[in-house]
Amino acid sequence: MRVLPEATFQQLLTLARQHGASDAEVYATGSRSQLVTFEGNRLKQLETISAEGVGLRLWRNGRCGLAVAYGAFDPKTLVDKAIALSQLGEAAPVLLAETSPETWKLPVLQPSVESMVEQGEATIASLRDRYPDTICSGEWSLDFDTTRLLNTRGVDCHFSDSSLSASVGVEWVRGDDFLEVGIDETVSPRPSVLNVSLHPDRWTEAIALRLDWATRTLTPPSGTYPVIFTPNAATVLLETAISASNGRHVLQKTSPWTDKLGQQVVSPLLTAIQKPPFGPFGTPFDDEGIPCQEAIAIDRGHLKSISCDLRTARALDMPATGNGYRSGLGSYPHPGLINLVLPEATTRFEELLRTCDRGLVVDQILGSGGGLAGDFSFNVDLGYWFEAGEIVGRVKDTLVAGNAYAALNDIAGFGCAPLALPETGGREWAGSIFTPAIAISSLSITGQ
Asked: Most CB within 10 Å of its CB: which of 14, 55, 73, 403?
């Protein structure tokens, strides 16, 4: 998929220079999605959504300006806008890549819309056969994305990607009790795995297992107990660690891990590595044109690296490792981590339950985590109480509170995610984090 004509890229850089810019960068993206949506147990709609846009960032008189256009646009108008915005900006150093990174050449996923419809109908039918009182919904999405980056320092890089994702949700109403269970999966060809496919049979089994566990509902006792976070819920802890290792926060000295590089910050059981070519969310270079590199974020509990974009890398006197990302065309790059991979599970999920003996399994939460401060207090959207190493029922009206940093220093072990695929080492993707289930020795639980 072509984002802009080649002549438009060059015209933008030329016009920027002609209007007094010392340096400039053109960052363009394009996307096309084929969506198949199910609602109320049946096919709802088919649609195709496309979008494309371009961001022009330039430096003039030592000040930076960023202007954005979507769809058709006039290059001179975009340059004039960026020049005008630069006059309002603060003085900023020129931060541009100077060497074009290598890209990946990947096969393009080409499932037909008909096959996506068939897979959705078969998945819903399978769930309804086992639980006829449920209401099922879902969405299948085939996405094509492309990125192009050029600048006046000679960088020219391009990456095209395709991915297939699906999400399935089940609503189960029993009297005044409402239960909603969902599961999703995304696959995309990567250098290490070119042939990929979805696993709808696993979704059916994973949802059915959770519905079986929820047959009985109960209120857990209040107190401090072991808590096991499935991959979907473990992000409430791990995203705090990612935020703490963000170079922008370290630079601003708002991170509790400022000046902790090389020191132990979490349990020695935890190792976390950024692996760009691994999994569906990796990319060969970041949004600044810097090659994404494998980086050990945490090694056996010790903080080993800080995620930096070009700005924070310069300020902290650290090498740029390809961790500069934009939240949108209108935003400047900021530090971020992708494809964060945790260790393989050391035990089966059932054995993890027996090891902890009595406590709570958290599968879905309401609200968010503790952010950079680490303190959290969330309601359990979907969770299960276990006694003597066995799930005994679904909990309702339950609150879990604690501190993410303290919890990550109190890891009791890693277990396989329920019904994880054998080749994953017991791990599942939760966003761009590949993690097993994580058991925390003790957290505060309040049953209301």
From this structure: 55
